[in-house]
Structure formats: C-alpha cells, structure tokens
Amino acid sequence: MRNSNLYTFIFISIVTIICAGLLSSAAFYLKDKQQTNVEVDMKKNILKAVKLLENNKMSQQEILDLYNQNIENYVVNNLGEIINLPEGILVEDIDPEKEDTKPESDRLFPVYVKKSRTVVLAYCIPILGKGLWSTMYGYLALEPDLNTILGITFYKQAETPGLGSEVEAENFQNKFIGKQIWDDEDNLVSVKILKLEPSPNSPNIMYEVAGISGATKTSDGVMNLLLKDLTKYETYFRNLRKELVQKEEI
C-alpha cells in the first residue's frame, strides 16, 4: 500500500493541505504586524527627508510619536486644491503608484508637512519611478520656500548592488540638499543629474548634481522621476509660492 501511487498522492495532498493551512494562519496572524512595519517604515523615511530622524536606532513607538508630534498631512487634487478624504480613508492609505493609473482628474496627491505649532518648516511628497531594473520609491522634502531641497530618501529599490543601489546611500542623497527646483524665470526645472561633478562655474549649478558612477540608467531614472513627480504638484506649489510673495509684500 505504501508503495502505491494512491498512497503517494494521498500523502502529498495531506502535506500540501497542512502547509497551506499553516501559511494561511501565519499570514492572518502576522497581518497587523506587517501593516505596522509598513506604516513605521513609511513614516521613518518621511522623518528622514525632513531632517527629523538622525538616529536609526529609535524604536517603532518612538518613530510614531516623533511623526505624530511634528507631521501633518493632507491630499491635493490635480488643481492644487486641498480636499477632504472619505470617512475611514487616511492620507497614508493613498498609494501614489495606484494614483498614477487613474485619469488625471481623479488623482490624489499626498502632502506631508513638518510644522512647529503653526509654522511650516518643510513640505514632503512621495516620489517613485523606474530605474534600470526596478521601480524606486522615496520621499522628497522642500524647505518652506518650496524651491530649496531639504532632503531626499530612497528606501525601496532593486537596482544593481554596489552601483544603482547607491541611490540609498547618504553620500548620494546629500548631493541634493540645497539644490533648487525653480529657475529665475519661475520655471519648474527640477534637478539635472550629470555623469560628472557639475562645474563650479556652471550657471546652472544650483540645479545640477553628479550621478552615480557606473549607474547612468539609474541616475537618469532618478532625474526623470523627480521632474515627473514635482510636475504633479506644480499647480499646488505655485499657489503656495504666490501666497508667500503676497505675505512678503504686506
């Protein structure tokens, strides 16, 4: 009997059912923990982009507390208007990747604001786009002038190890700090990534950074996704910049 095909079939079926049950149970009981990990990772990278998180050894609860104490969030539509979400939907639930698949008029764009009481200290937006092998995900933070880059993070990618994967390295991300995204004529130009270090005499040095050596496609991907995602928020940022000018004139 044990050497029969029927016995083999029954044995494999029982083992498969047991394994499937164990996997299903594990997924069910770990679901909340997995969701918490995703939430913490997202908020940790927002805090990094706005320069509130320098210590990677913070506990999950410390990260959540720091986020809740300093970050406000909302969504804007393609007209740059802040809108209310349906009851039960949080800003954190908005998936920028899924929003890109919707008609432009239906898209929602999350905004994360670093504040001290009523004073805005930074604006942060999600960024994502294709590199050489993968989609790269991160956050970009701007100073209150909505022109100067405060910080950038990339936290998820599958680029070439030791080359394109350097988008997650601090020495690459730090190159963006202080760069500007609007030119003198108020055109949204974002940041251009060059193969070599920008010339100190370049008239566009405020919009230029050096790319990753040996990872031209990944560097081009970063440059393209920055312009793409900043363009999504262009109308909203222009409205805020007009308000800043009006306040300065009063």
Query: For the report, how would you describe the main beta sheet?
Result: 6 strands, antiparallel
SS-based structural class? alpha+beta
Count of DSSP strands? 8
Number of helices: 6
Order of helices and strands: HHEEHEEEEHEEHH
Please give a structural write-up.
With 250 residues, this protein is α+β, with helices and mostly antiparallel strands. It has one domain (37-249). The protein has 6 helices and 8 strands, in the order H-H-E-E-H-E-E-E-E-H-E-E-H-H. It has helices at residues 5-49, 60-70, 96-99, 170-173, 216-232, 234-249; strands spanning 71-76, 82-83, 109-116, 119-130, 135-142, 149-156, 192-194, 208-210. The strands form 2 sheets. A 6-stranded antiparallel sheet has the order 2-1-3-4-5-6. A two-stranded parallel sheet has the order 7-8. Helix 1 (5-49) crosses helix 2. The longest helix is centred in the N-terminal third of the chain and has 45 residues, at 5-49. It is globular. The mean pLDDT is 89.
Layout of helices and strands:
Elements: H1 5-49, H2 60-70, E1 71-76, E2 82-83, H3 96-99, E3 109-116, E4 119-130, E5 135-142, E6 149-156, H4 170-173, E7 192-194, E8 208-210, H5 216-232, H6 234-249
Helix pairs in contact: 1-2
